[in-house]
Design a protein that fits this description.
Length: about 375
């Protein structure tokens, strides 16, 4: 039919021709279709689906305007904004794992206290292991992984931490997983991803001088594209540093992660520098996929970092006592910076939108951070 398969994501297909423009995203046998006009969709469906006049087509059914896809509820509004949540999926999780939850009456406003979450550990003895063998810890964490990876970046750090104990969880880990599930249940109706088609630079993304106009123009000319990167240097209980990133486009989150670095960072600057390099790899992928979709991101893309030493290492190549041992892989950002594909900007810690991917936050900070990541939309009456 003349479609071109994306070399960067083989599940994306694009057609541009005499019939208009058509985008197809497929997941096994579920397809999303976006077209430039109703006539373009009619052309696609008549040639793709089996019918009396098209015996070579696929057996399928057009379900109409998308409202539910892969466990996600998708709401489209007259002002062209879009909201995505998994309220139905979360409700099923609650009914399965916590049947007596009564989510409407139990107020779990936050995932878990930072103190209790930082003290999680493996099972202490065989008695605890025997008890945990009867509880569905792995199933709960697996379900939480799906939710956090699709529409709930606000719980990504907590789920990543729970995954550390999947081989030998303790009862405290199970309680934390249930608490996290109840938090999702309490917020399932009004917390999720939201896109308002905004392409303006965020009003809180930090210090802009001396080239404020250039940074703003770069963000606005790239449809509101901006990334944030952050890292927490290793704690006494973990030699690896946690890091996270978040990427915005058209006013909403399109990519995020909460992970652990694969290197033992010797300083906070090294951890932040390595995290920024990981973020740049994701930015490169997004740039390629956007181009495959017909959306061209031009010039250096902005990434916000709250560590001036990491920015200095990137912008000033040279050997010093603090960076001479760096692995080649974490110099990826320097390569992109030299080729003017990335621009690093300083973001104060209190405005760092990737902060919640690296550590548990106190309630006040968590709610303020959550509003920048998954702003509450249509709160319950």
């Amino acid at each position: 039919m003349g479609f071109r398969q994306s070399p960067h994501d083989p599940c994306i297909f694009r057609y541009v021709g005499v019939h208009g423009e058509c985008l197809i995203a497929c997941y096994v046998d579920d397809l999303l279709c976006a077209t430039s006009s109703p006539g373009t969709f009619d052309w696609f469906s008549s040639n793709f689906l089996f019918s009396d006049t098209n015996s070579d087509g696929f057996y399928g059914k057009h379900l109409g305007k998308v409202s539910y896809f892969l466990g996600m509820a998708i709401d489209q509004y007259d002002d062209c904004s879009i909201s995505v949540n998994q309220s139905k999926y979360i409700g099923k999780m609650l009914d399965k794992f916590v049947p007596s939850h009564q989510a409407n009456s139990i107020k779990h406003h936050k995932p878990c206290s930072p103190e209790s979450f930082s003290k999680l550990s493996t099972a202490k003895d065989d008695l605890e292991r025997e008890r945990m063998s009867t509880l569905p810890y792995l199933e709960i964490v697996g379900s939480l992984l799906y939710v956090s990876g699709m529409t709930r970046p606000d719980v990504a750090y907590y789920v990543t931490t729970l995954c550390k104990f999947m081989h030998d969880p303790s009862p405290e880990c199970y309680d934390a997983a249930v608490s996290l599930l109840l938090y999702l249940g309490h917020t399932k109706e009004y917390v999720g991803l939201h896109y308002d088609a905004c392409t303006k630079a965020p009003s809180d993304f930090g210090r802009l001088e001396p080239d404020a106009n250039a940074i703003q123009n770069s963000i606005e000319s790239n449809y509101g594209f901006i990334a944030y990167s952050d890292a927490s240097w290793r704690s006494s209980s973990n030699k690896y540093s946690s890091y996270g990133y978040i990427v915005y486009l058209f006013g909403g989150v399109i990519s995020f992660a909460s992970k652990y670095l694969k290197i033992v960072a010797m300083s906070s600057a090294e951890a932040e520098y390595a995290a920024a390099s990981q973020t740049c790899r994701e930015m490169a992928y997004i740039r390629h996929v956007c181009l495959d979709l017909g959306l061209t991101l031009t010039g250096p893309l902005c990434v916000g970092v709250d560590n001036t030493a990491a920015i200095s290492i990137c912008e000033n190549p040279g050997i010093t006592a603090r960076n001479k041992h760096f692995d080649d892989q974490i110099h990826y950002i320097r390569h992109d910076y030299d080729h003017q594909r990335v621009r690093m900007i300083y973001v104060p810690t209190d405005r760092q939108r990737a902060d919640g991917f690296t550590k548990p936050l106190d309630p006040t900070t968590f709610f303020r951070w959550r509003e920048t990541v998954v702003p509450a939309h249509h709160p319950p009456v």
